[in-house]
Specification:
Length: 234
């Protein structure tokens, strides 16, 4: 009798867990679609523009131009992303600058992506043989034209794998936006868990959704790398 009751309780608990899993799924997916994915895309695109500008400044021969870029990269890479989020969202209001949760998270992620991606872009540009520059100059190209038409396209192919990894990492990093009240995927999981007290199931569910998103992005990355590798001499 005891064993039978134990089995019934287990079955009931499993059914309730599955029901909670399915009922919470739309809310979590909504958070992913409305906030996690847009936050990732906007931050990465904005970060790439900032990264390219920073990389160009780092490659400048003028120390006056290099200095701000070096300081920016050092400051961002030397401090935790969470601290940067808190400074922007919770710290800036102390000096009268109030920014809503989503823009605050976007600014923090753009600054973070810009610093790390700038080093990837800079290294990719430096990896291009100097002969490419010399060949461009011999046919009358200026440095800017050579950079735009010869160097950057080759550097872009080199930088795809590390930048793709940064993009996938950014998807997971957006979970930190929950701490500045952005209602993204993980924030939704936290809200549901606070009502149901079933933290383990809901956090595992959130982890599965993140994993599915990152797995799809990994497949896209692999396809892009195969496509680009067709133009590389073997």
């Amino acid at each position: 009798m005891f064993l039978q009751n134990r089995v019934l309780l287990t079955i009931t608990a499993n059914m309730e867990g599955w029901e909670l899993f399915m009922n919470s799924l739309p809310s979590m997916l909504s958070g992913a679609i409305r906030y996690t994915i847009p936050l990732t895309l906007i931050s990465f695109i904005g970060g790439l523009f900032l990264a390219l500008l920073t990389a160009m400044m780092r490659l400048s021969k003028s120390r006056l131009i290099q200095a701000p870029a070096i300081f920016y990269v050092s400051a961002i890479r030397g401090t935790p992303l969470l601290v940067q989020l808190f400074i922007i969202f919770y710290g800036l209001p102390n000096i009268g600058v109030n920014i809503d949760p989503f823009p605050s998270a976007t600014i923090a992620f753009i600054l973070n992506v810009g610093a790390y991606a700038s080093e990837i872009i800079r290294a990719s540009i430096l990896s291009i043989p100097k002969g490419q520059w010399e060949a461009a100059f011999t046919i009358g190209m200026t440095r800017r034209t050579a950079l735009r038409r010869i160097i950057l396209p080759q550097a872009a192919r080199v930088s795809v794998p590390p930048l793709s990894n940064s993009f996938i990492s950014l998807v997971k990093d957006t979970s930190l936006a929950s701490l500045v009240l952005v209602a993204e995927l993980f924030r939704k999981a936290q809200e549901i868990a606070a009502r149901t007290y079933d933290f383990l199931l809901l956090y595992i569910e959130a982890a599965l959704i993140y994993w599915v998103i990152c797995f799809i992005l990994s497949l896209i990355q692999a396809g892009l790398e195969r496509r680009l590798s067709r133009y590389v001499a073997r």
